[in-house]
Design a protein that fits this description.
By secondary structure, the protein is an alpha+beta fold. The protein folds into 2 domains: 72 residues, SH3 type barrels (Roll); 89 residues, Translation Initiation Factor IF3, CATH 3.30.110. It is built from 2 helices and 10 strands. It is elongated.
């Protein structure tokens, strides 16, 4: 009789565990939960027996394994091995994109041209590229932009176009 009760309890437990969704992160963690909502940038979920709604950025999640065995790919892992991977670094203005990621540092990049005919957009792009290179050197794969400034060129010898970008770099 004890064996039958034990077997029943064991099967009930397995059914409860298998009925849960699983969030697989880029760090290799597995979150056993019940998915409540998928938004453009986040996954909202609850742990078994809890009412608290948790939130995780899709940038941190590789895939979701739903309780019905369906697998949904969420995001590809961005691997940064150094300066040679600087073009893989993503730029974002959304704080939700970096939720749960590890802060690697704050960086500022500047770009300038002595010519008044160089556009502000071109200098802004140069500053962004420099920022991505700085982030790649510390292994960061995404940068949250804090500020951007630019100044168009004036007339005469003192003219020129300048741009500055400040951001915080993050990784998994």
């Amino acid at each position: 009789m004890k064996k039958v009760i034990f077997l029943f309890v064991l099967l009930s437990f397995c059914t409860i565990v298998l009925a849960q969704d699983r969030i697989m992160t880029h760090r290799g963690d597995t979150i056993v939960c019940k998915i409540s909502e998928l938004t453009d940038n986040n996954i909202k979920y609850r742990f078994e027996g809890e009412d608290l709604l948790n939130n995780i950025s899709k940038n941190l999640v590789r895939e979701i394994k739903f309780s019905n065995n369906r697998i949904q790919k969420i995001s590809e892992k961005v691997v940064i091995n150094g300066l040679e991977d600087w073009q893989k670094v993503k730029i974002t203005n959304l704080e939700s994109d970096i939720s749960g990621l590890n802060r690697k540092g704050e960086f500022t990049a500047n770009a300038a041209s002595g010519w008044s005919t160089t556009g502000e957009g071109k200098m802004q792009a140069k500053a962004m590229d420099k920022l991505k290179k700085q982030a790649s050197e510390v292994g960061a794969h995404i940068v949250l932009i804090l500020t951007t400034t630019s100044k168009g060129g004036g007339h005469g010898m003192s003219g020129g176009t300048k741009a500055s970008v400040t951001g915080v770099a993050y990784s998994y």
